[in-house]
Amino acid sequence: MTSLPGPFVVRPNWGLGAAAGCPCWPQYGGTAPTRQVEWDLSWECRDNSKCVAAPGPPTKTSATVFQLLTLAGIAATSALSPLDPWALRYVPFYSHCFALDPKLLLDASVSEQSEEYRGHLSGELGEGLAWWVLFEHMDIIHICRVKHLMEPRSVAGHQVAPLVRPARGQPRQPDLYCLDAGGNVVLAEAKGRNDSPKGPKMRAAIDEGLLQVCNADPVGRNPRIGCGRVVIATALRDHGRSVRKGTTTRIVEPPCGPKRGASDGGGDADATRTPPEAVARLSYATMLRFAGRPDLAAAAMEARTLLDSHEHVRALPYDALLSVGRAPTGGTVSVVAGVLLALGQSGSQFMARYADGLGAFAHVADGLREALPEALVLRSGVVVTPDYPRLGDRA
Hints:
β6 and β7 form a beta hairpin. α4 (277-290) packs antiparallel against α5 (294-302) and α7 runs antiparallel to α8 (347-371). The chain starts with a strand and ends in a 10-residue tail after the last strand. Helix content is 27%, strand content 21%. It has one domain. It is of the alpha+beta class.
């Protein structure tokens, strides 16, 4: 058991069974995963102030290599399919590709790698950086795949109608359906290229992404005002040639604007106040599969209890963290007890317990971030902590 300051307690597998084994983070002499790196943000929206939670969009951001690669791994995980090790074949090794620099720069040796490898590297890192921007700077709590919301689906024992429809019959849609703290929808497309911010690869990627985010409409609700449709594209630069300029993430709104969502013929009085249950469950199912727990992911989708009936488990405070498994990219995945209890309920009971669980976690999340600055702490109540000591520049 790992004790953390205040109310934070990670209790390994209380009532959850044994976590599936997975390889530890390999060390290959690259940048230590706990190292902080900084990069630039370029906001290219009609009203930048409406795209971010805090007044004024930030021009820079920073994260640890561990946080970025963990998000890249989560982004490559399906909520509904078994975890595919092949989809994550490169991610655990990417710490070797970061230059030893406070800026987020790729090591000069990356330019010597194959086009296929650099394509995977920039694409997967671009996903991780986009998820970081969404979570840290755009008030997003849940992210799930648009493709999982474009067909009817059984959720918590009920058939749920599609939550996204293709616009004008267009074939390509954005990847990400996001919900912010107010339950508002953001449709996002993540891109990553080993190029300059205005280079031809980046221009082509952004143009493609702008078409994609206009090619889908959320059902029953409108995209939020201010980056309700957005392309988040990162130009990853190499150390040596680009030290002065560094890496830049461009946040771009399409000319189609937020537009109205598709009508579902009905109405949900709480639609603007509470996230749809299906979206929340898909989000948590993704995290649980990433933790090597397909059993818990299936239980979350079906509203089956995730915790056993032992009295000491039921008596846990809602803000206690429970270890649920190991990330394939390294680290321990934990989920706040209040959320795990809520996932065993459905309908109004789910929403009530879910709100209580997130409310309890919100009171302790800042302290957890301060105590464990290397950890990935999401406002959804999911925490991924590195399980190795803090390292120097080289492993």
